[in-house]
Amino acid sequence: MKTPLLSRRSLALLAASSLSLAANANALAFNNPLVGPSADPFMTYSNGKYYLCCTNLQSSITILASSTLNGFHSAAAVNVYNTGGCFESPELYWFGAPYNHWYIYYTVCPNTIKVLESDSTNPQGTYHAKATLNTNSYDATLLQLPTGPLYLVGSTYGHIVIQPMSSPFATSGGQTNIAAIDQPWERTVIEAPAPVWHLGQLTMLYSSGSWNSNNYAVGGLKFNGGDPTAASSWTKLSGPLFTGDPSVSAWGAGAASTFLSADGTETWFVYQAFNSAYSGTDNRNIRAQKMQFNVDNTPDLDSPIALSQSISEPSSASYFNEAEKLSIAAQTSGITARSSGDPATSAWNAAYFDGTAAGQFITYTVPNITAGTYDVRIGVKDWNNKGQWQLAISRLDSQGSPTNVGPVIDEYTATATYKAVDLGNWTCGTTSDKAFRFTISGKNSASSAFGIAIDYVELIKQ
């Protein structure tokens, strides 16, 4: 919600450790709050770390990172961009080819939406101003449909609004209202939109009430299909879905935003709350807990968990990396790299390489792998235009003699098929960044092309 940021009123983290989440992460635990004073949290997971950004009551946008939620208690807030004044509600997104940049969307107080573009592939590196998206809304979030269309969603105080985008930094149509203040519990504003997907069902969370009052709470809009810019495509869920509970030191809980666990199997959310009734000082803090789902796949946020209660860390494989978010260390000329949305893939996205001949290759950087033996599993999408590939692994700084891992994999099938390919065990001799090279070895005679589709890279510690 809006705060009197100096005068008024969101994914995550930078831990000292650069190691990815260990296989026994569920044996670890954390306590809320994660950080404070902060508000409007946004969390995302990428290549072994959670990244968190928030309204921090300063003029500089900061990003924290950690391989665990517990690590946020001591994570450093890294300044990535000085806005020069009041800002709020930053959100962090990676866009693969053809962009290959991180983008931060934030509000210049009171209601101008701007986007920043990273100067490198490091989410905690520097950023530069890219574009002003509009001057009449705040609390920007992004919605991308499985079929690809991208939308900017925000608030105009009295409405949740949406407008199409033609790129990560350009809108391509006007705003339309998709929700207003019309339920008995809603009051003052309707804001902080945040999409959550579960088994194909989209729900748009939002918050309503006064940011410094215990009437601030979270509601939801269920998407019924069709045109997302039409109000008729959305139905208000009976709310509120999540409210404060002063008995567990959660006063004015709201501004919920969702993120996935490291292995992509669990949905969690971060939110803001006061420990006690507002007394003139904005000392909200950031908390996290796991989300459940109803039989119709709409979210069940339950109620705030007490600060004294330990919470198990989000689920994690030894290492789980979305292919579309991995850095490309090398690639042969003639092979085009791109990413594309697909609801059947992990995190609704995968990396595609449109090869044209055998011998072409693409090499990913898989960071911070600890020495040990791992079962290597690659998520793939088989189809009638896919080729065959061989995986070889080496140290990133010594790619001359990579070691083949597993057999040649044929991604051809007559119809689209999604699966995990188990390549067997691989022993990592040193703790370092590794180069995962996928080389096209040929194609099935029935396939129309040499393309390959990689969804994720998963390493299970043995």
Characterise the protein shown here.
By secondary structure, this protein is an all-beta fold. Helix content is 0%, strand content 52%. The protein has strands at 29-30, 39-46, 49-55, 60-66, 78-82, 87-95, 101-108, 112-118, 127-134, 138-144, 150-155, 159-167, 170-171, 176-180, 190-198, 201-208, 217-223, 234-236, 242-243, 251-260, 267-274, 285-290, 292-293, 299-300, 311-312, 319-322, 327-331, 337-341, 349-353, 361-369, 372-382, 388-395, 398-410, 417-428, 432-442, 452-461. The strands form 9 sheets. Strands 26, 28, 29, 31, 34 and 36 form a 6-stranded antiparallel β-sheet that branches. Strands 10, 11, 12, 13 and 14 form a 5-stranded antiparallel β-sheet that branches. The chain starts with 28 loop residues before the first strand and ends with a strand. The model is unreliable at 1-27 (pLDDT under 50).
Task: Outline the secondary-structure elements.
Layout: E1 29-30, E2 39-46, E3 49-55, E4 60-66, E5 78-82, E6 87-95, E7 101-108, E8 112-118, E9 127-134, E10 138-144, E11 150-155, E12 159-167, E13 170-171, E14 176-180, E15 190-198, E16 201-208, E17 217-223, E18 234-236, E19 242-243, E20 251-260, E21 267-274, E22 285-290, E23 292-293, E24 299-300, E25 311-312, E26 319-322, E27 327-331, E28 337-341, E29 349-353, E30 361-369, E31 372-382, E32 388-395, E33 398-410, E34 417-428, E35 432-442, E36 452-461
Antiparallel strand pairs: 1-25, 2-3, 3-4, 4-5, 6-7, 7-8, 8-9, 10-11, 11-12, 12-13, 12-14, 15-16, 16-17, 17-18, 17-19, 20-21, 21-22, 23-24, 26-36, 27-30, 28-29, 29-36, 30-35, 31-34, 31-36, 32-33, 32-35
